[in-house]
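USER:
Try writing one entry.

ASSISTANT:
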Amino acid sequence: MNIPTIFIILLAVIALWIVVIYNGLIRMRNRMKEALSDIDVQAKRRYDLIPNLIETVKGFAKQESSVLENVTKARTEAMNTSGTPLEKAGAENQFTSTLKSLFAVSENYPDLKSNTNFLELQRELSDTENKMMASRRFYNNTVKDLNTKIEVFPTNIFAKMFGFQNAPFFEVTEASEKEPVKVQF
């Protein structure tokens, strides 16, 4: 082999290496977008369940209208929030907080707690919350992998060249959400 042939092979290997790095970054970014979309899907499911739950509670808890209005308002705000995952997380956390007050109201109405429709809606909402938490964990894990890949050498050189930036984690921003749940009997 002569020097020009070795030089061409070396350039081809380097070009292939850059393509592999770039494609890996694209794959990670798309996984992150998919994970964020999964959160949106679960949020949509939750938003669809809430009106039915509120209607069921209304029949039992006429005097609790402020709680129902707060849940409805928080739902609307969460649905209409667009922007970064952090902005969405804030609205989602506020919505989750108001849902807790709705379930606290249900504790005051034994007939409501035994209502089949309410129990089914509550079970579906709980299932949706579990899926939402799993989606958030998947998103955060994907963000961690992407951010790590963007920051480690030598990928960081090419990530900067191609305009890749660290993605934000989906975090709890409300101090009340970080508090342990108080259970009283």
